[in-house]
């Protein structure tokens, strides 16, 4: 009898010990399925210009921001931001056939503020992450492959919206009044042409 009790106690404790905590990303509806982080061209780091800390460089995905040290600024900014529900309702259907490329700097305070907010907006819009790409730049606004040159990037963050491969507008450095409102304004303007 005593053995049965111990066995049962271990089973119950084992169940709680193995319980998986739901992450902020999972709560938002984000799924990292298919994003293993094993691509050698994704989520690369190098030392900043001062040589004091690592920064992300080149193409990055959500996996990078969900990891230390970037999660220290990503998670709080993501959780604090609440997109306007009325604007989101209007924005969501306008995102069809849209792709987005962001140029950011993991070292940049504006990027640390707006990139998590941008992810919150696209998560709530159920926007496919496969149509959203991020390129992290150095402090001098360069990347290893020079992707920023053809896009004429002069400031970070820059979010470029494309419809059917053609640029329809961009949000540069600061979204005013909000990211979702800027996106809606861009897409409405493009739709009225």
Automatic annotation (TrEMBL):
InterPro entries membership: Thioredoxin-like_sf (IPR036249)
SUPFAM superfamilies: Thioredoxin-like
UniProt KW keywords: Signal
The keyword Signal is assigned to this record: yes
Record Gene3D superfamilies: Glutaredoxin
Secretion signal, residue range per the UniProt entry: 1-19
Name of the protein in question: Thioredoxin family protein
Source organism: Rufibacter sediminis
Organism lineage: Bacteria, Pseudomonadati, Bacteroidota, Cytophagia, Cytophagales
